[in-house]
């Protein structure tokens, strides 16, 4: 029997488990293959909605569902934290003492937004990166905010959802304008990048908007610390900004299990081949999504698209296709600009993002995705994503092309 | 006892914006005043981005060298809290 173990039950891990279960349905039923998924808990959070909770007052409970109900029944799910991953011995240990041997391992443990990594940040700021219930604290604060300095600050790179600081700034502007108090609020964005958004073509679209809305963008900002009592944020080079409300994008790191198992770099990101998604020096272990060190957006769409490529490579091993499939680096991150308009930051490894016009249709597409997310996790809607985003995996040898289709 | 100045080599070759600036940002966090950061990059935008970064943060670009197939940018850390 071949054992596939997946660690991490976020977007990437759940997509991968369900896609594998569909593709290997007959083999699983015949007892030739098992798909085992280890997740921190039985909760699955639709993380992109944190922004809606924080800045539009959506209820956080709407975006949390039971993982066990989202999984194909052929997947064995262990809602218990992974304690250790031993790549040499091909084994995963959980905190409850379970020991799972594997023939193929997929690591999808995500990223941890950790405000404690910056002195004073935890006490001095609110954020929408550490879960929907913390995001709801922002909305509570905003409702009673009557004027002052609001600072949106990036405290470390990389972080989940690159457009999110910009989206926060634009949605704050919309919020205060709708309440008629915009002239009493100063909004500032502090970013470590050379421009409002790292990709120049996207910056060209949003910088005029910042100017028009009167939002100041401070570039090359390297956060050092926050003084929660004085309400001041400091940069490494000695700049300081006072605030009345600080919305921070906390520094991120790899998951605890990755750091404990010493399979990541100094920040806990797993060294991963950006095309094949195999973990460096291993041909039986892959990593996807936020957990990797691949220099690409840490976002749900990347975790989703990479899960398809990783699944093909696992299938190739089990079914003997003799192919290694390669990810083309496709990203497609929506960026809300306020007042029902959005753009998509779309690129591949070989094709940088291009300038585009903000539109209502793109904002509608973003909100539609939040409605179909739970259904999409089953793997039944892959054809829609393929239609919209194109083929993201290609076989190295140019031989067998495999299309992931819903099994009947 | 003063801490010996260190040379931090950052290899950003093969990575495009914001890769080199992200790597420089991380190296700057680890560095002390007096340290030298040597950034290797293939992204042509790294030249202007790093120069703008140095102007803004009060650090100094010592040299920018076009090596075979990549750029080597040497930065001296002059300002750090």
From TrEMBL, chain B:
Domain UPF0033 residues, every copy: 9-76
**From the UniProt record, which GO molecular function terms apply?**
transferase activity
Is Transferase among this UniProt entry's keywords? yes
Q: Does the keyword Transferase apply?
A: yes
Tell me the keywords, alphabetical order.
Answer: Transferase
Query: Family, per the entry?
Result: Belongs to the sulfur carrier protein TusA family.
Q: What is this protein called?
A: Sulfurtransferase TusA family protein
Q: Which organism is it from?
A: Caldiarchaeum subterraneum
